[in-house]
Write a structure and sequence with these properties.
four-stranded parallel sheet; five-stranded antiparallel sheet; alpha/beta; 2 domains; 269 residues; Alpha-Beta Plaits; Rossmann fold
Amino acid sequence: MYKLLLVTDNPGVQEAFAEVKSWAYLGFKEPRQAHGVDEAFDVMSRHHVDGVIVSLPEEEKCRFIERMNEKPLIPIVLARLPASSETVSQDAELIGQLLNRTRADYSNDRYNEEEMMQMCRHDFFRKLLSGKIATPESAKRSMLVMRSKMDPDVPFILMELGMPEDEGYLQGKWSYGADRLEVAMRNIFGAEKNGMRVLVSVVNDKRMFLTACPMIGEAYYRDPLEMMTMVREHAEAGIKHVREFLGIDLNIVSEEIRPSLVSLTVKGV
């Protein structure tokens, strides 16, 4: 069973945790508790922790999340208020579902936990770009639990990359399919550059998007046009590399500066 840590000084949240009837049913041992940031890191220095649920004042919450950069594979969920045994159980289930994926036994494959977490994030971004994430709140919640570095609240660049012979191309010349194509594109375009995270998503086997978003806590371009210039140069270099090494002629179909990642959610549009 997984080991959970509650970090809060909120009596209502503590009471909601105490009211959960069966932690074992949720796949967890009885959670450990810490009342603040320093105590939480003291607990984690002495005990194994698989996931964390947090409810702290804003300044302390931000300090905790920033310090958790030291532990990038531990899922974090912000407790919803007012808390109840039902919301706490849902929070724990969200962590458990992610852990079940990142800790699954892929003994015949090469994936490790970090790679599995990255796969979960790529799955999320495909859904986000496909309009399958309902609200800004759910998007932020998913990004935090998966420990995404991308800042969901700042302007970012969204490009669509066109493939040749669009109709049927993945079933024709590129016979490996969308999944293999996306992996190849990630290896070429994916980067952390000048405070930005760049990734590629192949959506619906037909469309390919390049997303370039500032990372949380990193210095990034304040001028959106300057940001666009940097991303375009990066994309053009990647397109050239794809042509030379994979024989695929990509092109930039469209490019835009979006107000935030959460603007891609159904209710954020």
